[in-house]
Amino acid sequence: QVQLVESGGGLVQAGGSLRLSCAASGRSSGSYDMGWFRQAPGKEREFVAVITWSGSQTRYADSVKGRFTISRDNAKNTVYLQMNSLKFEDTAVYYCAARRRGGIVTSGEGYEYWGQGTQVTVSS
Fold this sequence. Notes:
The protein is mainly beta. It has no helices and eleven strands.
């Protein structure tokens, strides 16, 4: 069982930066791939980024590529999402998710554990 808690969201002006964190607990064994997803009002949940358990592979949605960076520190059981050059269109609730290691998966249906989300609001 894995518990995930996101933090770091808030209000930021367009062009600014935020760093989201997702702290995982409850794992005594096993390795997990970690992903970030987001959901804006009136829209479906969408994939943002994923990182494999070792950090050796990452993948990003085209909409955030070059602006966002996903990373992890397994010693701290934490995954991060550094968001730069934020746009109004990035406004959403951001969720982190975990799945047993297996490789890059961009569908939310492939993730078993989810955090409660953190709000990111970008003002224009």
